[in-house]
Known about the structure:
Amino acid/polyamine transporter I; 472 residues; 0% strand; 72% helix
Amino acid sequence: MQQVEKKQRENWGSRFGFLMAAAGSAVGLGNIWRFPYLTGMNGGGAFIVIYLICVFVVGLSIMTAEFAVGRRTGLAAVGAYKSYSNRWSFAGALGVLSGFFIMGFYPVVGGWALAYAFKSVTGLLANPGALGDAFGAFITSPVEPLVWTLIFLALNVVIVAKGVAGGIEKAGKVLMPTLFVLLIFIIFRSVSLPGSGAGLTFLFKPDWSQVNGSTVLAALGQAFFSLSLGMGCMITYGSYLNKKENLPSNALLVTSMDTAVAILAGIAIFPALFAFGMEPAAGPGLVFVVVPSIFAEMGGAGVLFSVLFFALLVVAALTSSVSLLEVVVAYLIDQKNMERKPAVYASSGIMVVTCILSSLSLGVMSGFTILGVGVFDFFDILTDKIFLAIGGMLLAIFVGWVIKKEDLKDELTNGGTVKFALFEAWYNLTKYVIPVAIAIVAISGITAIAQKSLMIFGLLVIVVLALFSKKL
Length: 472
Protein backbone atom coordinates (compact mmCIF):
# COMPACT_ATOMS: atom_id res chain seq x y z
CA MET A 1 0.00 0.00 0.00
CA GLN A 2 1.47 3.36 -1.04
CA GLN A 3 1.81 6.02 1.62
CA VAL A 4 -0.16 9.14 0.80
CA GLU A 5 0.65 12.39 2.55
CA LYS A 6 -2.54 14.07 3.68
CA LYS A 7 -3.67 16.91 5.88
CA GLN A 8 -5.39 16.46 9.22
CA ARG A 9 -8.66 14.71 8.47
CA GLU A 10 -12.05 15.57 9.84
CA ASN A 11 -13.72 12.98 12.09
CA TRP A 12 -17.18 12.14 13.34
CA GLY A 13 -17.90 13.64 16.76
CA SER A 14 -19.71 10.56 18.10
CA ARG A 15 -20.72 7.03 17.18
CA PHE A 16 -24.39 8.01 17.24
CA GLY A 17 -23.72 10.89 14.87
CA PHE A 18 -21.87 8.62 12.45
CA LEU A 19 -24.62 5.98 12.54
CA MET A 20 -27.31 8.57 11.86
CA ALA A 21 -25.32 10.05 8.97
CA ALA A 22 -24.44 6.67 7.45
CA ALA A 23 -28.00 5.38 7.85
CA GLY A 24 -29.19 8.65 6.33
CA SER A 25 -26.92 8.08 3.35
CA ALA A 26 -28.41 4.63 2.85
CA VAL A 27 -32.01 5.72 3.47
CA GLY A 28 -33.27 7.69 0.51
CA LEU A 29 -35.89 7.88 -2.19
CA GLY A 30 -35.18 4.22 -2.91
CA ASN A 31 -36.66 3.23 0.46
CA ILE A 32 -39.78 5.41 0.45
CA TRP A 33 -40.50 5.45 -3.28
CA ARG A 34 -38.75 2.61 -5.15
CA PHE A 35 -39.06 -0.21 -2.58
CA PRO A 36 -42.88 -0.02 -2.16
CA TYR A 37 -43.61 0.01 -5.89
CA LEU A 38 -41.13 -2.81 -6.60
CA THR A 39 -42.77 -4.82 -3.81
CA GLY A 40 -46.16 -4.19 -5.36
CA MET A 41 -45.00 -5.19 -8.82
CA ASN A 42 -43.26 -8.38 -7.63
CA GLY A 43 -45.89 -10.10 -5.51
CA GLY A 44 -45.47 -8.56 -2.06
CA GLY A 45 -44.23 -10.83 0.73
CA ALA A 46 -42.19 -13.20 -1.45
CA PHE A 47 -40.24 -10.25 -2.83
CA ILE A 48 -39.56 -8.99 0.70
CA VAL A 49 -38.16 -12.36 1.85
CA ILE A 50 -35.77 -12.47 -1.11
CA TYR A 51 -34.88 -8.81 -0.59
CA LEU A 52 -33.96 -9.41 3.06
CA ILE A 53 -31.69 -12.30 2.10
CA CYS A 54 -29.96 -10.12 -0.49
CA VAL A 55 -29.56 -7.23 1.96
CA PHE A 56 -27.97 -9.24 4.75
CA VAL A 57 -25.78 -11.41 2.52
CA VAL A 58 -24.62 -9.12 -0.30
CA GLY A 59 -25.40 -5.63 0.99
CA LEU A 60 -24.03 -6.05 4.50
CA SER A 61 -20.82 -7.63 3.19
CA ILE A 62 -20.14 -4.80 0.74
CA MET A 63 -20.91 -2.13 3.34
CA THR A 64 -18.46 -3.76 5.76
CA ALA A 65 -15.84 -3.79 3.00
CA GLU A 66 -16.39 -0.11 2.15
CA PHE A 67 -16.06 0.93 5.80
CA ALA A 68 -12.84 -1.09 6.10
CA VAL A 69 -11.28 0.40 2.96
CA GLY A 70 -12.25 3.95 3.95
CA ARG A 71 -10.97 3.78 7.52
CA ARG A 72 -7.76 1.89 6.71
CA THR A 73 -6.69 4.44 4.10
CA GLY A 74 -8.20 7.53 5.74
CA LEU A 75 -9.17 8.71 2.27
CA ALA A 76 -12.28 9.03 0.15
CA ALA A 77 -13.05 6.89 -2.91
CA VAL A 78 -10.29 7.81 -5.39
CA GLY A 79 -7.54 8.20 -2.79
CA ALA A 80 -8.48 4.94 -1.05
CA TYR A 81 -7.98 2.89 -4.21
CA LYS A 82 -5.00 4.95 -5.34
CA SER A 83 -3.16 4.39 -2.06
CA TYR A 84 -2.86 0.73 -3.05
CA SER A 85 -2.34 1.13 -6.78
CA ASN A 86 -2.69 3.90 -9.33
CA ARG A 87 -4.20 1.35 -11.67
CA TRP A 88 -7.19 1.06 -9.32
CA SER A 89 -7.93 4.76 -8.91
CA PHE A 90 -10.39 4.57 -11.81
CA ALA A 91 -12.69 2.48 -9.58
CA GLY A 92 -12.82 5.32 -7.08
CA ALA A 93 -13.32 7.85 -9.86
CA LEU A 94 -16.27 5.80 -11.04
CA GLY A 95 -17.81 6.29 -7.59
CA VAL A 96 -17.21 10.04 -7.74
CA LEU A 97 -18.76 10.22 -11.20
CA SER A 98 -21.72 8.22 -9.94
CA GLY A 99 -22.26 10.66 -7.09
CA PHE A 100 -21.92 13.59 -9.45
CA PHE A 101 -24.33 12.21 -12.05
CA ILE A 102 -26.89 11.14 -9.46
CA MET A 103 -26.81 14.69 -8.11
CA GLY A 104 -27.65 15.76 -11.64
CA PHE A 105 -31.23 14.50 -11.18
CA TYR A 106 -31.72 13.52 -7.51
CA PRO A 107 -32.28 17.11 -6.29
CA VAL A 108 -34.95 17.43 -8.99
CA VAL A 109 -36.99 14.64 -7.38
CA GLY A 110 -36.18 16.03 -3.92
CA GLY A 111 -37.58 19.34 -5.13
CA TRP A 112 -40.77 17.62 -6.26
CA ALA A 113 -41.24 16.19 -2.76
CA LEU A 114 -40.58 19.60 -1.21
CA ALA A 115 -43.10 21.20 -3.55
CA TYR A 116 -45.74 18.57 -2.79
CA ALA A 117 -45.34 19.11 0.95
CA PHE A 118 -46.38 22.74 0.36
CA LYS A 119 -48.93 21.93 -2.33
CA SER A 120 -50.69 19.63 0.13
CA VAL A 121 -51.98 22.69 2.00
CA THR A 122 -52.77 24.73 -1.11
CA GLY A 123 -55.35 22.54 -2.83
CA LEU A 124 -53.38 19.54 -4.13
CA LEU A 125 -55.99 17.10 -2.81
CA ALA A 126 -59.06 19.09 -3.89
CA ASN A 127 -59.54 17.13 -7.12
CA PRO A 128 -58.32 13.50 -6.70
CA GLY A 129 -59.21 12.63 -10.29
CA ALA A 130 -56.83 15.26 -11.63
CA LEU A 131 -53.76 14.27 -9.59
CA GLY A 132 -52.12 12.47 -12.51
CA ASP A 133 -52.55 15.42 -14.87
CA ALA A 134 -51.45 17.85 -12.13
CA PHE A 135 -48.21 15.95 -11.56
CA GLY A 136 -47.50 15.82 -15.28
CA ALA A 137 -48.13 19.55 -15.64
CA PHE A 138 -45.91 20.32 -12.64
CA ILE A 139 -42.80 18.36 -13.68
CA THR A 140 -42.97 19.66 -17.27
CA SER A 141 -43.27 23.30 -16.20
CA PRO A 142 -40.18 25.32 -17.19
CA VAL A 143 -39.92 27.35 -13.96
CA GLU A 144 -41.76 26.00 -10.91
CA PRO A 145 -39.88 22.68 -10.45
CA LEU A 146 -36.58 24.52 -10.97
CA VAL A 147 -37.29 26.80 -8.02
CA TRP A 148 -37.94 23.84 -5.74
CA THR A 149 -34.89 22.01 -7.07
CA LEU A 150 -32.62 24.96 -6.27
CA ILE A 151 -34.09 25.26 -2.77
CA PHE A 152 -33.45 21.56 -2.16
CA LEU A 153 -29.89 21.81 -3.51
CA ALA A 154 -29.25 24.86 -1.34
CA LEU A 155 -30.11 22.82 1.76
CA ASN A 156 -27.41 20.35 0.75
CA VAL A 157 -24.85 23.12 0.28
CA VAL A 158 -25.54 24.62 3.71
CA ILE A 159 -25.14 21.24 5.45
CA VAL A 160 -22.04 19.98 3.63
CA ALA A 161 -20.25 23.36 3.79
CA LYS A 162 -20.34 23.16 7.60
CA GLY A 163 -18.17 20.04 7.56
CA VAL A 164 -18.38 16.47 8.79
CA ALA A 165 -19.10 16.94 12.49
CA GLY A 166 -20.57 20.45 12.29
CA GLY A 167 -22.80 19.89 9.27
CA ILE A 168 -23.40 16.32 8.09
CA GLU A 169 -23.37 14.75 11.55
CA LYS A 170 -25.59 17.40 13.15
CA ALA A 171 -28.06 17.17 10.29
CA GLY A 172 -28.15 13.38 10.57
CA LYS A 173 -28.88 13.54 14.30
CA VAL A 174 -31.97 15.63 13.59
CA LEU A 175 -33.15 14.27 10.25
CA MET A 176 -32.99 10.51 10.89
CA PRO A 177 -34.98 10.51 14.16
CA THR A 178 -37.45 12.89 12.47
CA LEU A 179 -37.82 10.45 9.58
CA PHE A 180 -38.64 7.56 11.92
CA VAL A 181 -41.16 9.63 13.90
CA LEU A 182 -42.96 10.76 10.73
CA LEU A 183 -43.01 7.23 9.36
CA ILE A 184 -44.45 5.74 12.57
CA PHE A 185 -47.09 8.49 12.69
CA ILE A 186 -48.24 7.70 9.14
CA ILE A 187 -48.20 3.95 9.85
CA PHE A 188 -50.60 4.34 12.78
CA ARG A 189 -53.10 6.09 10.52
CA SER A 190 -52.64 3.64 7.64
CA VAL A 191 -53.15 0.44 9.66
CA SER A 192 -56.16 1.92 11.48
CA LEU A 193 -58.17 2.24 8.24
CA PRO A 194 -60.99 -0.28 7.64
CA GLY A 195 -59.76 -3.01 5.30
CA SER A 196 -56.07 -2.29 5.92
CA GLY A 197 -55.43 -5.87 7.02
CA ALA A 198 -55.40 -6.99 3.39
CA GLY A 199 -52.40 -4.74 2.79
CA LEU A 200 -50.48 -6.30 5.68
CA THR A 201 -51.32 -9.77 4.36
CA PHE A 202 -50.03 -8.75 0.92
CA LEU A 203 -46.77 -7.56 2.50
CA PHE A 204 -46.04 -10.38 4.89
CA LYS A 205 -47.66 -13.51 3.42
CA PRO A 206 -45.34 -14.72 0.64
CA ASP A 207 -46.92 -15.88 -2.59
CA TRP A 208 -44.14 -17.96 -4.12
CA SER A 209 -46.12 -18.49 -7.32
CA GLN A 210 -45.24 -14.89 -8.21
CA VAL A 211 -41.49 -15.50 -7.97
CA ASN A 212 -39.35 -15.89 -11.08
CA GLY A 213 -35.85 -14.92 -12.16
CA SER A 214 -36.73 -11.26 -12.63
CA THR A 215 -38.07 -11.12 -9.05
CA VAL A 216 -34.73 -12.29 -7.65
CA LEU A 217 -32.81 -9.85 -9.84
CA ALA A 218 -35.10 -6.97 -8.81
CA ALA A 219 -34.59 -7.81 -5.12
CA LEU A 220 -30.81 -8.05 -5.45
CA GLY A 221 -30.65 -4.81 -7.41
CA GLN A 222 -32.85 -2.95 -4.92
CA ALA A 223 -30.85 -4.26 -1.95
CA PHE A 224 -27.62 -3.08 -3.55
CA PHE A 225 -28.78 0.35 -4.65
CA SER A 226 -30.80 1.06 -1.50
CA LEU A 227 -27.70 0.87 0.70
CA SER A 228 -25.76 3.54 -1.28
CA LEU A 229 -23.09 1.04 -2.25
CA GLY A 230 -20.71 1.22 -5.19
CA MET A 231 -20.66 5.02 -5.31
CA GLY A 232 -18.01 5.80 -2.70
CA CYS A 233 -20.37 7.10 -0.02
CA MET A 234 -19.55 4.48 2.59
CA ILE A 235 -15.83 4.56 1.78
CA THR A 236 -15.89 8.32 2.33
CA TYR A 237 -17.91 8.10 5.55
CA GLY A 238 -15.68 5.26 6.76
CA SER A 239 -12.61 7.42 6.20
CA TYR A 240 -13.84 9.79 8.93
CA LEU A 241 -14.09 6.99 11.53
CA ASN A 242 -11.64 6.58 14.40
CA LYS A 243 -9.77 3.32 14.98
CA LYS A 244 -11.86 2.35 18.02
CA GLU A 245 -15.12 1.85 16.14
CA ASN A 246 -16.37 -1.69 15.59
CA LEU A 247 -16.82 -1.74 11.81
CA PRO A 248 -18.84 -4.99 11.41
CA SER A 249 -21.20 -3.92 14.20
CA ASN A 250 -21.68 -0.47 12.68
CA ALA A 251 -22.28 -1.95 9.22
CA LEU A 252 -24.95 -4.25 10.67
CA LEU A 253 -26.68 -1.35 12.44
CA VAL A 254 -26.70 0.87 9.35
CA THR A 255 -27.96 -1.97 7.15
CA SER A 256 -30.68 -2.82 9.67
CA MET A 257 -31.86 0.80 9.92
CA ASP A 258 -32.01 1.15 6.16
CA THR A 259 -33.97 -2.08 5.83
CA ALA A 260 -36.32 -1.10 8.66
CA VAL A 261 -37.21 2.15 6.85
CA ALA A 262 -37.97 0.26 3.64
CA ILE A 263 -40.25 -2.23 5.45
CA LEU A 264 -41.92 0.55 7.44
CA ALA A 265 -42.55 2.47 4.21
CA GLY A 266 -44.34 -0.60 2.87
CA ILE A 267 -46.44 -0.79 6.05
CA ALA A 268 -47.26 2.91 5.72
CA ILE A 269 -48.41 2.62 2.09
CA PHE A 270 -49.93 -0.80 1.37
CA PRO A 271 -52.59 -1.02 4.13
CA ALA A 272 -53.95 2.33 2.91
CA LEU A 273 -53.78 1.19 -0.72
CA PHE A 274 -55.89 -1.88 0.01
CA ALA A 275 -58.23 0.05 2.33
CA PHE A 276 -59.20 2.31 -0.58
CA GLY A 277 -59.18 -0.44 -3.20
CA MET A 278 -56.19 0.85 -5.18
CA GLU A 279 -53.75 -1.13 -7.28
CA PRO A 280 -50.57 -2.23 -5.39
CA ALA A 281 -48.58 -2.60 -8.60
CA ALA A 282 -48.92 1.09 -9.45
CA GLY A 283 -45.31 1.50 -10.58
CA PRO A 284 -43.13 4.64 -10.21
CA GLY A 285 -46.18 6.93 -10.06
CA LEU A 286 -47.11 5.44 -6.69
CA VAL A 287 -45.77 8.28 -4.53
CA PHE A 288 -46.80 11.38 -6.47
CA VAL A 289 -50.15 10.23 -7.85
CA VAL A 290 -51.55 7.19 -6.01
CA VAL A 291 -50.49 8.12 -2.45
CA PRO A 292 -51.99 11.65 -2.68
CA SER A 293 -55.19 9.99 -3.91
CA ILE A 294 -55.24 7.98 -0.68
CA PHE A 295 -54.87 11.13 1.41
CA ALA A 296 -57.62 12.83 -0.59
CA GLU A 297 -59.97 9.99 0.41
CA MET A 298 -59.26 10.64 4.10
CA GLY A 299 -61.06 13.98 4.13
CA GLY A 300 -59.78 16.83 6.30
CA ALA A 301 -57.11 14.72 8.02
CA GLY A 302 -55.71 13.83 4.61
CA VAL A 303 -54.05 17.23 4.25
CA LEU A 304 -52.07 16.73 7.46
CA PHE A 305 -50.95 13.24 6.47
CA SER A 306 -50.03 14.40 2.98
CA VAL A 307 -47.81 17.13 4.44
CA LEU A 308 -46.19 14.61 6.80
CA PHE A 309 -45.63 12.06 4.05
CA PHE A 310 -43.93 14.45 1.66
CA ALA A 311 -41.92 15.94 4.53
CA LEU A 312 -40.78 12.37 5.17
CA LEU A 313 -39.81 12.03 1.50
CA VAL A 314 -37.84 15.29 1.64
CA VAL A 315 -35.92 14.14 4.73
CA ALA A 316 -35.11 10.78 3.12
CA ALA A 317 -33.92 12.46 -0.08
CA LEU A 318 -31.85 15.05 1.81
CA THR A 319 -29.95 12.56 3.97
CA SER A 320 -28.86 10.68 0.84
CA SER A 321 -28.09 13.67 -1.36
CA VAL A 322 -25.86 15.16 1.36
CA SER A 323 -23.68 12.04 1.22
CA LEU A 324 -23.57 12.15 -2.58
CA LEU A 325 -22.39 15.75 -2.55
CA GLU A 326 -19.81 14.84 0.13
CA VAL A 327 -18.32 12.14 -2.13
CA VAL A 328 -17.49 14.76 -4.77
CA VAL A 329 -16.36 17.33 -2.20
CA ALA A 330 -14.10 14.81 -0.42
CA TYR A 331 -12.43 13.98 -3.73
CA LEU A 332 -11.61 17.66 -4.34
CA ILE A 333 -10.31 18.04 -0.77
CA ASP A 334 -8.19 14.86 -0.77
CA GLN A 335 -6.88 14.82 -4.33
CA LYS A 336 -6.96 18.48 -5.40
CA ASN A 337 -6.11 20.06 -2.00
CA MET A 338 -9.12 22.37 -2.07
CA GLU A 339 -10.62 23.81 1.10
CA ARG A 340 -14.06 22.52 2.02
CA LYS A 341 -16.24 25.53 1.19
CA PRO A 342 -14.71 26.25 -2.25
CA ALA A 343 -15.02 22.51 -3.01
CA VAL A 344 -18.70 22.57 -2.01
CA TYR A 345 -19.46 25.69 -4.05
CA ALA A 346 -17.61 24.43 -7.14
CA SER A 347 -19.31 21.03 -7.03
CA SER A 348 -22.79 22.37 -6.38
CA GLY A 349 -22.36 25.09 -9.02
CA ILE A 350 -21.94 22.47 -11.72
CA MET A 351 -24.79 20.42 -10.21
CA VAL A 352 -27.09 23.42 -10.57
CA VAL A 353 -26.49 23.33 -14.31
CA THR A 354 -27.04 19.57 -14.61
CA CYS A 355 -30.19 19.74 -12.46
CA ILE A 356 -31.61 22.53 -14.62
CA LEU A 357 -30.97 20.46 -17.74
CA SER A 358 -32.54 17.40 -16.10
CA SER A 359 -35.66 19.27 -15.06
CA LEU A 360 -36.11 20.99 -18.43
CA SER A 361 -35.60 17.67 -20.24
CA LEU A 362 -38.99 16.59 -18.89
CA GLY A 363 -40.69 19.58 -20.51
CA VAL A 364 -39.45 22.31 -22.83
CA MET A 365 -36.21 20.42 -23.65
CA SER A 366 -37.85 17.03 -24.13
CA GLY A 367 -36.74 17.04 -27.75
CA PHE A 368 -33.07 17.28 -26.76
CA THR A 369 -31.54 13.85 -26.16
CA ILE A 370 -28.17 12.35 -25.30
CA LEU A 371 -27.63 8.98 -26.95
CA GLY A 372 -31.35 8.64 -27.49
CA VAL A 373 -32.66 9.65 -24.05
CA GLY A 374 -33.42 12.88 -22.20
CA VAL A 375 -30.90 14.33 -19.72
CA PHE A 376 -32.88 13.19 -16.65
CA ASP A 377 -33.10 9.60 -17.91
CA PHE A 378 -29.50 9.70 -19.14
CA PHE A 379 -28.14 10.38 -15.64
CA ASP A 380 -30.54 7.88 -14.07
CA ILE A 381 -29.83 4.98 -16.44
CA LEU A 382 -26.07 5.58 -16.58
CA THR A 383 -25.72 5.37 -12.79
CA ASP A 384 -28.48 2.97 -11.73
CA LYS A 385 -27.97 0.42 -14.50
CA ILE A 386 -24.22 0.68 -15.16
CA PHE A 387 -21.94 2.66 -12.83
CA LEU A 388 -23.22 1.57 -9.40
CA ALA A 389 -23.35 -2.15 -10.09
CA ILE A 390 -19.92 -2.18 -11.74
CA GLY A 391 -18.54 0.01 -8.94
CA GLY A 392 -19.74 -2.48 -6.34
CA MET A 393 -18.31 -5.41 -8.27
CA LEU A 394 -14.93 -3.67 -8.56
CA LEU A 395 -14.91 -3.00 -4.81
CA ALA A 396 -15.51 -6.67 -4.01
CA ILE A 397 -12.71 -7.71 -6.39
CA PHE A 398 -10.41 -5.04 -4.92
CA VAL A 399 -11.05 -6.16 -1.34
CA GLY A 400 -10.82 -9.86 -2.15
CA TRP A 401 -7.86 -9.87 -4.51
CA VAL A 402 -5.78 -6.72 -3.94
CA ILE A 403 -5.82 -5.96 -0.20
CA LYS A 404 -4.01 -8.54 1.92
CA LYS A 405 -6.28 -10.79 3.93
CA GLU A 406 -4.35 -10.16 7.15
CA ASP A 407 -4.68 -6.38 6.67
CA LEU A 408 -8.44 -6.72 6.36
CA LYS A 409 -8.63 -8.89 9.45
CA ASP A 410 -6.51 -6.40 11.37
CA GLU A 411 -8.81 -3.54 10.31
CA LEU A 412 -12.07 -5.35 11.04
CA THR A 413 -10.93 -6.56 14.46
CA ASN A 414 -9.21 -3.28 15.41
CA GLY A 415 -5.87 -5.04 15.69
CA GLY A 416 -7.39 -8.03 17.45
CA THR A 417 -9.13 -6.03 20.18
CA VAL A 418 -12.68 -6.76 18.96
CA LYS A 419 -14.15 -10.02 17.70
CA PHE A 420 -15.41 -10.67 14.20
CA ALA A 421 -16.34 -14.35 14.35
CA LEU A 422 -17.66 -14.37 10.80
CA PHE A 423 -14.50 -12.96 9.23
CA GLU A 424 -13.67 -16.10 7.19
CA ALA A 425 -17.24 -16.39 5.91
CA TRP A 426 -17.34 -12.66 5.07
CA TYR A 427 -13.96 -12.77 3.31
CA ASN A 428 -14.79 -15.78 1.12
CA LEU A 429 -18.23 -14.40 0.33
CA THR A 430 -16.76 -11.04 -0.71
CA LYS A 431 -13.91 -12.58 -2.67
CA TYR A 432 -15.66 -15.35 -4.57
CA VAL A 433 -19.46 -15.09 -4.45
CA ILE A 434 -20.43 -11.41 -4.41
CA PRO A 435 -18.51 -10.32 -7.54
CA VAL A 436 -20.42 -12.96 -9.50
CA ALA A 437 -23.77 -12.04 -7.92
CA ILE A 438 -23.31 -8.34 -8.66
CA ALA A 439 -22.08 -9.13 -12.17
CA ILE A 440 -25.39 -10.90 -12.82
CA VAL A 441 -27.30 -7.78 -11.73
CA ALA A 442 -25.02 -5.54 -13.80
CA ILE A 443 -25.32 -7.66 -16.94
CA SER A 444 -29.09 -8.00 -16.59
CA GLY A 445 -29.42 -4.26 -16.03
CA ILE A 446 -27.20 -3.34 -18.94
CA THR A 447 -28.84 -5.76 -21.37
CA ALA A 448 -32.26 -4.40 -20.35
CA ILE A 449 -31.33 -0.94 -21.58
CA ALA A 450 -33.08 -0.26 -24.84
CA GLN A 451 -30.54 2.42 -25.81
CA LYS A 452 -27.49 0.27 -26.65
CA SER A 453 -25.48 3.40 -27.44
CA LEU A 454 -25.92 4.52 -23.82
CA MET A 455 -24.60 1.18 -22.60
CA ILE A 456 -21.58 1.49 -24.87
CA PHE A 457 -21.00 5.07 -23.67
CA GLY A 458 -21.05 3.98 -20.02
CA LEU A 459 -18.60 1.17 -20.59
CA LEU A 460 -16.41 3.50 -22.66
CA VAL A 461 -16.27 5.93 -19.73
CA ILE A 462 -15.04 3.11 -17.49
CA VAL A 463 -12.34 2.14 -19.98
CA VAL A 464 -11.16 5.76 -20.32
CA LEU A 465 -11.01 6.11 -16.53
CA ALA A 466 -8.89 2.97 -16.33
CA LEU A 467 -6.48 4.28 -18.98
CA PHE A 468 -6.04 7.71 -17.38
CA SER A 469 -6.28 6.66 -13.73
CA LYS A 470 -2.78 7.95 -12.90
CA LYS A 471 -3.89 11.52 -13.57
CA LEU A 472 -6.76 11.37 -11.05
